[in-house]
Amino acid sequence: MKKLIALFAVSALASTAATAGVALSGAASVSYDDNGSLASATSYDADITLVGTAGGTTFTYSMDVDQASPQTTAADMASTIGPITIAADMHQVVESNSNDGDGDAKAQTDDTGVTISLDAPIGDATVGLDNSGNVTVSGTWAGVTVSHTSKKAGDTTTASAAIAGMDVSVTNKAGATTWSMGTTVSGVDLTLASSKKITAAFGLTGNTMTVTHNPAVAEATSTATTYSVSAVKAYSTVAVSRDLTSGAALSATYSSLDDSLTLKASVAF
User: Is residue 97 a part of any domain in this protein?
Assistant: First the structure.
């Protein structure tokens, strides 16, 4: 009997140790949208994420569970051995290939892959190489974070920094430059992007109002790899969000695009 109790104790200890490096998190929400002049609709969303850690190796698995057949949304593993980090994206995302006016790709693309990074002792730089042959060099110097990726389809360079209370980010991809700036004025968080999108957030954590101006989208014809993009007029949204004592959050969003109001209740753990 003592041996059986001892065996049970060892088994329980082993089970506890096996789960000690596992973290479970998730989020769920339900939304009601009156859709302006169209028929109203109710939608649901529920996601679960499992993170397992053993030494210098981490595995992350995510699922979308608000449907009859839950679907995997992410499966990633990263392992660090000294100055080398090996990261593997093992999930092939099923992309939308519909000709619905938002520029979807005409065919599925392979987004799985392996990246090997070396934290080189060269001015705090990190050098990475993935299985597509892309080489990335990144690091922070004098408060400015710079990342440069050399690839067949065109190089990408990103630089970001906090300057005099303003967060600035600039990206050049294959010769096209985009940028964004964010700052806080009298307690209002302002963000401006090169796309002409402007966001202003008021209030404190747990009780906020966010006003966003979305620029017009120009019509674009289809290409050999993507479908066409339909024109969309400029519009604004106003979102009010508040945390409840129950642990959930309630938000209401109005959009001038279709004169709709969306009510959403959500919870995260």
Answer: yes
